[in-house]
Design the sequence.
């Protein structure tokens, strides 16, 4: 069980090692060191997992203390790890998917001028993420929570020379801070209500606290989750976060960090269980986000933006599950989503790479002939996310929708509608990228934004590619090419997982592996299946029918013709105008308030100070004129003064 | 004060604290005797003097009895017997780390930025300033404190006026007069306190501990005198709305001046509020806490808002200080262990982070000769190391967990939340705003493609890296493992809160439901 310490310690060591020696190791050794660090962390996770399985079912929650972090008055906070089925599930997929993405990045980032620094951040991210999921109290979780946020900021603005990348990083951090505000206040309230912020202590004392307090804590934590997991109304940072290098989008902004909010809600499930109204709020925010983001994804042209909105939408599904009390389904979907969404992002990265930094899907097409591995794996990812049986996404999405039906039929209906939209926009993406005509041939590269000229890494040492580049310098007109093995190997592994991922929780007979395993966390993870199995099958069949039709329609429409203006209304292209609205309110409005405050500071507050100074000086200047130096003037003054005093004395004496 | 007496007996050997205060002043006098053109000798002597003083503060830290709440290393010599004035110095958990901070920051400020003009006077003034700061933190006699408190103004005035930037004359005069104006109130309050405390045949004394234990004033008298003290300290902190001397003084001061001003001098205000506010006037400070808390919260949000739109990088950091010092005052008047301990820890944290920020801004200025944000861009490409250090310090200032700023802010906000919920909620928005102004400033200065003027600037030299290393090390250490520091602060804080409870009807809410220790 002591291997648990190694899970976060190894990426931390990797980070420290790279800070000191990263420059000497260079490209690609520093990448290999980082990959080894997280890979061995995966091994440590497996070892811990195995020994936890060895425990009897009711003793699968172990706290490992490291040191006392804060001890002031009644506040005791330890830096300690909570090893239980939930945190181990998270650790396994975070380190597992993380290792694959690190490996991919070795190839993807090759040639970047700041190659070692990229892996410094990546390992620091892995450490923070593992602290987040392993923390045994709100504060250690918050340490990881903010740590991943900072790494996300550093990695989104990794190519900081680009104005858009720098702004996107800042936007992500600040938007997340709004959510963190909720997290902080929730922590204070929890301390006040329970006298402790350690998860197990809090859950023991749930019944001692007032209902309103519990509602407030749950809502405030959910605010934090909305920031981190990009839900309405705090989702706006995630699409912009695509400015980061693609491995970052896959690791942080699809597979791991953005699921932290869902994890937090699952961790706090005993609390949510006590406050059903908050659960309903969560379910509705989740399903509305899912639908809202899916509509936007239907009209985006940037290959990564489609996936970004899709991620927001899929996270919405997870919150729908949480709100419906189906925590296992939420975690199940989180895991399968990590597989197929990481796959899709890495596939997108491979495409972008193969096309020399082209991201516009309207300038792609027919790539399956040039990139066989990428296209085959991407298609698997597509079928998995769309929810086509028997791919992984089908099983997990089905679980969520069944639970949503139990919570409320309207939730189910919106969820099913979203499933249809998901199938449609993913079909559109696959059709535009891998099928149809070779539009990249006619694409006028002279007109492309000079983005590609910046530090986007040059494509990698694949033989053909290298030749192609040698021939034409910048390589704009070169044929698309498949990526090197360090990039395709993770694609293949993830594709296998996207096909088979469902087996961890198949809904037949004695299966439900994940459900049994997570049952060890606590009662709230035993979701009472209230629906008859015939209803379940009927619901599953209905959704699958919708999905298959939407897939077929989407594919047919977009593989034959790349332009359907009627299906891409401007309002969707502009994401319903929410960004514009926010930037008006907070950018322009906030700027005005700040400018006003500064003006007041200068004119009124400092004005009063300088005014006092001026008044004194003015008074002094004028009074100085009395000092004429003429004795007659002074004598007059003395005389007048004496007369006045005399008069005053007489008056006072009452004469 | 049995503990103090015991500690006094225990430490009755080498007069450590007197040595700490006098050493830099003596070295300053020695420097005055060295010929003006021997700048090499002057630099070495000056640096050695401040390093030696720093070592003395470290000795005090090592010898400090962790669990004692009272004053340690106490020295007392009667000075003016008729008035009950004595040279009395002592150290407790509240002043300990401020003393160490002073001991650490002065050598860094002397070693860091280069000064070209009149090195002799500059170093001499810096050393006098160091002695005066230490004297203020250590004095346990009101008159001795007041003298040192005022003495800090003189060298700081000369440093700003003599080695500052374009607008230095205006800024230094404003600094001097504004602070003196505050001190005038304090002096009146101080004299009133001392003389009114003789009521009932008590002997005249300026001794802090005796006066605090005596509590001889009527409630409303105490309130007025507390207010007089509070005004004096509020100007120094500075608390909204008496903060406007700070941006000018900070911006115009030379780098080392800004480092000391932000790192040490401002702490005299917050330290004064704790030591001479809460301790001398427990009841009055409880009664007037809502006023100070409100001003603190306004300072936090308002300072952050104004910082956002500053065009001068140094001025931006200065306004961020207004916000950060607001947090410290907030924690002080929350009257909880967490709030007060957090506040004292945050005094140290702010000294480290803001001191480091001013050093970094100074390094940028030395290369680029501008502080205008609009003229700087793309510096991360030009100076990756400086940018990385700036990033760490900035994240500390933003309050990122794992770095020092978070620990203090968290304790302050939590401690305030326990007693004054809504103040804490509003203050927490400062956490969002801090990210806005600092990240935006960072983006404008460091991100983007460097323009022609910013392209060929040298990165940090090894000397500069050496100067920043201890600061960055402490920033990380205090964020990860603040326990040794908090363990030394806590007893004194508990003692002070007990003192407040003894002399007022305030009771600290008991949230201390001890939890079971798992897996040990």
Sequence:
């Amino acid at each position: 069980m002591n291997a648990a310490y190694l899970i976060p310690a190894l990426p931390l060591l990797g980070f420290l090692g790279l800070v000191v020696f990263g420059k000497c190791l260079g490209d690609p050794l520093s990448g290999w060191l980082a990959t080894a660090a997280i890979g061995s962390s995966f091994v440590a996770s497996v070892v811990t997992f195995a020994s936890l399985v060895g425990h009897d079912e009711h003793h699968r929650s172990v706290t490992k203390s490291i040191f006392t972090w804060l001890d002031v008055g009644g506040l005791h906070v330890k830096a300690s790890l909570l090893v239980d089925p939930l945190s181990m599930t998270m650790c396994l997929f975070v380190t597992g998917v993380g290792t694959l993405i690190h490996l991919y990045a070795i190839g993807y980032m090759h040639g970047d001028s700041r190659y070692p620094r990229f892996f410094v951040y990546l390992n620091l991210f892995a450490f923070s993420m593992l602290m987040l999921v392993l923390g045994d109290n709100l504060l250690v979780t918050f340490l990881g929570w903010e740590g991943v946020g900072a790494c996300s900021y550093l990695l989104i603005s990794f190519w900081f020379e680009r104005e858009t990348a720098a702004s996107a990083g800042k936007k992500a951090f600040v938007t997340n801070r709004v959510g963190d505000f909720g997290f902080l206040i929730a922590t204070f309230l929890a301390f006040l209500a329970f006298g402790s912020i350690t998860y197990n202590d809090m859950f023991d004392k749930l019944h001692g606290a007032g209902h309103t307090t519990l509602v407030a804590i749950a809502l405030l934590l959910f605010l934090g989750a909305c920031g981190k997991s990009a839900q309405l109304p705090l989702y706006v940072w995630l699409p912009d976060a695509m400015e980061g290098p693609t491995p970052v989008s896959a690791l942080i902004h699809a597979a791991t960090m953005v699921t932290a909010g869902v994890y937090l809600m699952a961790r706090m499930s005993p609390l949510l269980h006590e406050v059903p109204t908050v659960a309903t709020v969560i379910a509705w925010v989740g399903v509305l986000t899912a639908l809202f983001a899916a509509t936007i994804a239907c009209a985006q042209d940037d290959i990564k933006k489609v996936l970004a909105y899709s991620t927001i939408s899929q996270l919405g599904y997870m919150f729908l599950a949480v709100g419906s009390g189906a925590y296992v389904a939420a975690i199940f979907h989180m895991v399968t989503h990590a597989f197929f969404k990481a796959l899709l992002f890495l596939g997108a990265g491979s495409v972008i790479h193969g096309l020399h930094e082209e991201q516009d899907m309207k300038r792609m097409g027919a790539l399956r002939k040039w990139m066989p591995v990428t296209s085959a794996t991407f298609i698997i990812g597509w079928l998995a996310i769309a929810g086509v049986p028997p791919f992984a996404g089908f099983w997990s999405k089905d679980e969520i929708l069944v639970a949503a039906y139990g919570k409320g039929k309207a939730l189910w209906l919106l969820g099913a509608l979203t499933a249809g939209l998901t199938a449609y926009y993913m079909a559109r993406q696959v059709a535009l990228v891998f099928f149809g005509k070779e539009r990249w041939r006619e694409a006028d590269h002279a007109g492309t934004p000079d983005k590609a000229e910046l530090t986007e890494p040059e494509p990698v040492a694949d033989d053909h590619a290298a030749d192609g580049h040698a021939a034409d310098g910048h390589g704009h007109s070169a044929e698309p090419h498949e990526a090197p093995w360090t990039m395709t190997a993770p694609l293949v592994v993830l594709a296998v997982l996207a096909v088979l991922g469902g087996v961890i929780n198949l809904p037949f007979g004695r299966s439900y592996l994940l459900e049994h395993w997570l049952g060890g966390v606590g009662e709230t993870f035993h979701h009472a299946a209230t629906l008859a199995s015939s209803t379940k099958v009927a619901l599953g069949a209905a959704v699958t029918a919708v999905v298959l039709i939407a897939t077929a329609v989407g594919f047919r429409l977009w593989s034959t013709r790349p332009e359907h203006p009627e299906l891409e209304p401007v309002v969707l292209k502009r994401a319903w105008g929410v960004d514009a609205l926010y930037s008006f309110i907070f950018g322009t409005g906030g700027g005005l308030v700040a400018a006003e405050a500064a003006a007041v500071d200068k004119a009124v507050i400092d004005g009063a100070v300088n005014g006092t100074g001026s008044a004194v000086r003015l008074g002094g200047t004028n009074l100085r004129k009395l000092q004429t130096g003429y004795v007659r003037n002074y004598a007059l003054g003395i005389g007048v003064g004496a007369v006045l005093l005399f008069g005053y004395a007489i008056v006072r004496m009452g004469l | 004060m049995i503990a103090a007496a015991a500690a006094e007996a225990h430490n009755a050997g080498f007069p450590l604290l007197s040595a700490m205060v006098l050493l830099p002043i003596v070295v300053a006098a020695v420097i005055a005797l060295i010929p003006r053109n021997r700048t090499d000798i002057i630099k070495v002597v000056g640096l050695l003097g401040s390093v030696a003083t720093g070592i003395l503060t470290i000795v005090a830290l090592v010898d400090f009895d962790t669990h004692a709440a009272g004053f340690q290393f106490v020295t007392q010599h009667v000075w003016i017997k008729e008035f009950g004035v004595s040279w009395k110095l002592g150290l407790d958990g509240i002043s300990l780390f401020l003393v160490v901070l002073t001991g650490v920051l002065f050598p860094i400020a002397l070693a860091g930025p280069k000064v070209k003009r009149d090195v002799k006077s500059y170093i001499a003034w810096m050393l006098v300033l160091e002695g005066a700061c230490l004297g203020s933190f250590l004095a346990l006699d009101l008159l001795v404190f007041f003298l040192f408190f005022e003495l800090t103004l003189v060298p700081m005035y000369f440093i700003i006026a003599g080695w500052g930037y374009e607008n230095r004359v205006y800024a230094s005069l404003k600094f001097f007069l504004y602070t003196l104006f505050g001190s005038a109130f304090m002096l009146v309050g101080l004299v009133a306190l001392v003389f009114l405390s003789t009521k009932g045949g008590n002997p005249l004394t300026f001794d802090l501990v005796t006066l605090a234990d005596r509590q001889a004033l009527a409630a409303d008298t105490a309130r007025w005198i507390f207010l007089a003290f509070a005004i004096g300290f509020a100007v120094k902190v500075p608390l909204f709305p008496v903060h406007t001397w700070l941006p000018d003084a900070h911006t115009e001061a030379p780098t080392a001046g800004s480092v000391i001003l932000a790192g040490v001098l401002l702490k005299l205000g917050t330290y004064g509020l704790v030591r001479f506010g809460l301790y001398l006037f427990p009841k009055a400070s409880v009664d007037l806490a809502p006023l100070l808390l409100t001003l603190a919260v306004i300072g936090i949000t308002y300072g952050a808002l104004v910082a956002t739109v500053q065009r001068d990088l140094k001025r931006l950091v200065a306004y961020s200080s207004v916000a950060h010092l607001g947090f410290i005052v907030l924690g002080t008047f929350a009257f909880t262990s967490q709030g007060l301990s957090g506040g004292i820890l945050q005094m140290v944290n702010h000294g480290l982070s803001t001191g480091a920020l001013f050093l970094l801004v100074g390094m940028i200025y030395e290369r680029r000769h501008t502080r205008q944000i609009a003229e700087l861009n793309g510096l991360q490409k030009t100076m990756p190391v400086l940018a990385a250090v700036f990033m760490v310090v900035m994240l500390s200032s933003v309050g990122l967990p794992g770095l020092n700023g978070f620990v203090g802010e968290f304790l302050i906000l939590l401690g305030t939340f326990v007693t004054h919920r809504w103040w804490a909620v509003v203050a927490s928005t400062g956490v969002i705003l801090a990210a806005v102004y600092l990240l935006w400033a960072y983006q404008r200065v460091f991100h983007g493609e460097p323009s022609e003027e910013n392209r060929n600037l040298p990165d940090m030299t090894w000397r500069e890296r050496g100067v920043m290393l201890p600061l960055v090390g402490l920033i990380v250490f205090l964020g990860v493992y603040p326990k040794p520091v908090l363990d030394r602060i806590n007893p004194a804080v508990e003692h002070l809160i007990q003192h407040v409870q003894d002399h007022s009807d305030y009771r600290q809410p008991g949230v201390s439901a001890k939890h079971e220790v798992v897996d040990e």
User: Anything to note?
Assistant: Chain B has 23 helices and two strands. The first helix of chain B runs from residue 2 to 10.
